[in-house]
Write a structure and sequence with these properties.
12 strands; twelve-stranded antiparallel beta sheet; 0% helix; Immunoglobulin-like; 193 residues; single chain
Protein backbone atom coordinates (compact mmCIF):
# COMPACT_ATOMS: atom_id res chain seq x y z
CA UNK A 1 0.00 0.00 0.00
CA UNK A 2 1.36 3.41 -0.98
CA UNK A 3 2.15 5.89 1.72
CA UNK A 4 0.26 9.22 1.67
CA UNK A 5 2.39 12.36 1.42
CA UNK A 6 2.72 14.43 4.58
CA UNK A 7 1.36 17.95 4.56
CA UNK A 8 1.48 20.60 7.27
CA UNK A 9 -0.64 23.77 7.17
CA UNK A 10 -0.57 26.63 9.67
CA UNK A 11 -1.88 30.20 9.76
CA UNK A 12 -0.05 32.72 11.96
CA UNK A 13 -0.58 36.40 12.76
CA UNK A 14 2.27 38.78 11.99
CA UNK A 15 2.91 41.58 14.48
CA UNK A 16 4.72 44.87 13.91
CA UNK A 17 8.00 45.62 15.65
CA UNK A 18 6.78 49.17 16.46
CA UNK A 19 2.97 49.13 16.62
CA UNK A 20 2.69 52.91 17.03
CA UNK A 21 4.81 53.55 13.92
CA UNK A 22 3.19 50.90 11.71
CA UNK A 23 0.13 50.93 9.45
CA UNK A 24 -3.06 49.82 11.18
CA UNK A 25 -3.37 46.38 9.64
CA UNK A 26 -4.27 42.83 10.43
CA UNK A 27 -1.53 40.78 8.85
CA UNK A 28 -1.24 37.03 8.67
CA UNK A 29 0.83 34.41 6.93
CA UNK A 30 -0.15 30.90 6.04
CA UNK A 31 2.25 28.16 5.09
CA UNK A 32 1.62 24.77 3.55
CA UNK A 33 4.59 22.40 3.50
CA UNK A 34 4.43 19.17 1.53
CA UNK A 35 6.77 16.26 2.00
CA UNK A 36 7.56 16.31 -1.72
CA UNK A 37 9.55 19.51 -1.26
CA UNK A 38 7.01 22.20 -2.01
CA UNK A 39 6.32 25.15 0.24
CA UNK A 40 3.42 27.52 -0.29
CA UNK A 41 3.33 30.81 1.60
CA UNK A 42 0.42 33.27 1.60
CA UNK A 43 0.63 36.74 3.12
CA UNK A 44 -2.68 38.52 3.79
CA UNK A 45 -3.25 42.15 4.71
CA UNK A 46 -6.50 43.83 5.66
CA UNK A 47 -7.51 46.92 7.65
CA UNK A 48 -7.57 46.56 11.42
CA UNK A 49 -11.10 48.01 11.47
CA UNK A 50 -13.82 46.36 9.41
CA UNK A 51 -15.22 48.49 6.61
CA UNK A 52 -12.11 50.66 6.29
CA UNK A 53 -9.87 50.73 3.20
CA UNK A 54 -6.33 49.41 3.32
CA UNK A 55 -3.81 51.97 4.54
CA UNK A 56 -1.79 53.51 1.71
CA UNK A 57 1.23 51.33 1.10
CA UNK A 58 3.56 51.67 -1.87
CA UNK A 59 1.98 48.71 -3.63
CA UNK A 60 -1.71 49.30 -2.81
CA UNK A 61 -2.05 52.06 -5.40
CA UNK A 62 -1.89 49.45 -8.19
CA UNK A 63 -5.15 48.55 -9.89
CA UNK A 64 -7.19 45.95 -7.98
CA UNK A 65 -7.30 42.48 -9.44
CA UNK A 66 -5.61 39.13 -9.55
CA UNK A 67 -2.51 38.16 -11.49
CA UNK A 68 0.48 35.87 -11.72
CA UNK A 69 3.65 37.87 -11.14
CA UNK A 70 6.91 37.17 -12.88
CA UNK A 71 9.86 39.25 -11.85
CA UNK A 72 13.61 39.32 -11.76
CA UNK A 73 16.05 37.82 -9.32
CA UNK A 74 17.26 40.94 -7.44
CA UNK A 75 19.19 41.82 -4.28
CA UNK A 76 18.09 44.36 -1.66
CA UNK A 77 14.35 43.67 -1.87
CA UNK A 78 14.02 44.20 1.91
CA UNK A 79 14.75 47.92 1.39
CA UNK A 80 11.11 48.29 0.27
CA UNK A 81 7.95 46.21 0.70
CA UNK A 82 9.00 42.58 0.81
CA UNK A 83 7.56 39.25 1.95
CA UNK A 84 10.14 36.99 3.61
CA UNK A 85 10.59 33.46 4.88
CA UNK A 86 13.53 31.81 6.65
CA UNK A 87 14.11 28.03 6.66
CA UNK A 88 16.51 25.95 8.74
CA UNK A 89 17.03 22.37 9.75
CA UNK A 90 16.56 21.96 13.50
CA UNK A 91 19.81 22.26 15.48
CA UNK A 92 21.87 23.38 12.49
CA UNK A 93 23.44 26.77 11.81
CA UNK A 94 22.75 26.82 8.04
CA UNK A 95 19.57 28.55 6.94
CA UNK A 96 17.93 30.06 3.86
CA UNK A 97 16.16 33.37 3.29
CA UNK A 98 13.47 33.92 0.62
CA UNK A 99 12.53 37.49 -0.39
CA UNK A 100 9.60 38.32 -2.68
CA UNK A 101 8.39 41.80 -3.59
CA UNK A 102 4.79 42.59 -4.54
CA UNK A 103 6.05 43.22 -8.10
CA UNK A 104 7.17 39.59 -8.40
CA UNK A 105 10.91 40.20 -7.99
CA UNK A 106 12.54 37.59 -5.76
CA UNK A 107 15.72 36.07 -4.35
CA UNK A 108 16.84 33.09 -2.27
CA UNK A 109 20.00 33.18 -0.12
CA UNK A 110 21.89 30.55 1.86
CA UNK A 111 23.66 31.46 5.12
CA UNK A 112 26.17 29.14 6.79
CA UNK A 113 25.64 30.81 10.18
CA UNK A 114 23.80 33.75 11.75
CA UNK A 115 24.03 36.73 9.38
CA UNK A 116 27.13 35.36 7.64
CA UNK A 117 27.69 36.46 4.05
CA UNK A 118 24.60 35.25 2.19
CA UNK A 119 25.10 33.42 -1.09
CA UNK A 120 22.48 33.07 -3.81
CA UNK A 121 21.02 29.57 -3.75
CA UNK A 122 20.34 27.80 -7.04
CA UNK A 123 16.62 27.19 -7.37
CA UNK A 124 13.69 27.43 -9.74
CA UNK A 125 11.86 30.74 -9.88
CA UNK A 126 8.95 30.75 -7.42
CA UNK A 127 5.38 31.06 -8.68
CA UNK A 128 3.91 34.31 -7.32
CA UNK A 129 0.24 35.20 -7.38
CA UNK A 130 -1.04 38.64 -6.36
CA UNK A 131 -4.64 39.47 -5.48
CA UNK A 132 -5.84 42.86 -4.25
CA UNK A 133 -8.86 45.05 -3.70
CA UNK A 134 -9.45 48.27 -1.77
CA UNK A 135 -10.11 46.21 1.36
CA UNK A 136 -7.40 43.54 1.31
CA UNK A 137 -4.50 42.02 -0.54
CA UNK A 138 -2.84 38.63 -0.67
CA UNK A 139 0.48 37.44 -2.04
CA UNK A 140 0.86 33.68 -2.53
CA UNK A 141 4.26 32.18 -3.24
CA UNK A 142 4.87 28.59 -4.30
CA UNK A 143 8.50 27.52 -3.96
CA UNK A 144 10.05 24.22 -5.05
CA UNK A 145 12.64 23.30 -2.43
CA UNK A 146 14.61 20.97 -4.73
CA UNK A 147 17.57 20.65 -5.03
CA UNK A 148 18.78 22.71 -2.05
CA UNK A 149 16.40 21.27 0.57
CA UNK A 150 16.96 17.53 0.64
CA UNK A 151 15.56 16.66 4.07
CA UNK A 152 12.15 15.01 4.29
CA UNK A 153 11.53 17.05 7.39
CA UNK A 154 9.56 20.16 8.26
CA UNK A 155 11.98 23.07 8.64
CA UNK A 156 12.26 25.54 11.47
CA UNK A 157 10.48 28.44 9.82
CA UNK A 158 10.23 32.20 10.31
CA UNK A 159 7.81 34.32 8.32
CA UNK A 160 8.12 38.09 8.11
CA UNK A 161 7.54 41.14 5.94
CA UNK A 162 8.67 44.69 5.44
CA UNK A 163 5.99 47.22 4.46
CA UNK A 164 6.73 50.61 2.91
CA UNK A 165 4.05 53.26 3.30
CA UNK A 166 3.30 56.14 0.93
CA UNK A 167 5.72 58.38 2.90
CA UNK A 168 8.61 55.89 2.43
CA UNK A 169 8.50 54.74 6.07
CA UNK A 170 9.28 51.07 6.66
CA UNK A 171 7.56 48.83 9.21
CA UNK A 172 8.78 45.37 10.18
CA UNK A 173 6.36 42.49 10.80
CA UNK A 174 7.13 38.99 12.05
CA UNK A 175 5.75 36.10 14.07
CA UNK A 176 7.53 37.60 17.10
CA UNK A 177 10.32 40.07 17.90
CA UNK A 178 13.04 39.38 20.44
CA UNK A 179 15.65 42.13 20.26
CA UNK A 180 16.02 45.88 20.48
CA UNK A 181 15.88 46.11 16.67
CA UNK A 182 13.94 44.15 14.06
CA UNK A 183 15.92 41.00 13.23
CA UNK A 184 14.22 38.38 11.08
CA UNK A 185 17.37 36.20 11.19
CA UNK A 186 17.05 35.69 14.97
CA UNK A 187 16.29 31.97 15.50
CA UNK A 188 14.20 32.79 18.59
CA UNK A 189 11.51 34.02 16.15
CA UNK A 190 11.27 30.73 14.24
CA UNK A 191 8.47 28.19 14.49
CA UNK A 192 9.92 24.80 15.32
CA UNK A 193 8.34 21.43 14.44
Amino acid sequence: MARHPVMVRQVCPLVPFSPDASPKLLASAEFVWEEHNTLELSFSLRPSQSGQPLPMLKFTSAAPGSSERSGQRLDGLWEHSCFEAFFALPNQDRYWELNVSPSGDWNLYRFESYRSQGAREQTLEPRIHWQSSQKDCRCTIELRLDPWWTAVQLPDLAIAMVLEDSDNNLSYWALSHHGDEPDFHDRRGYLTP
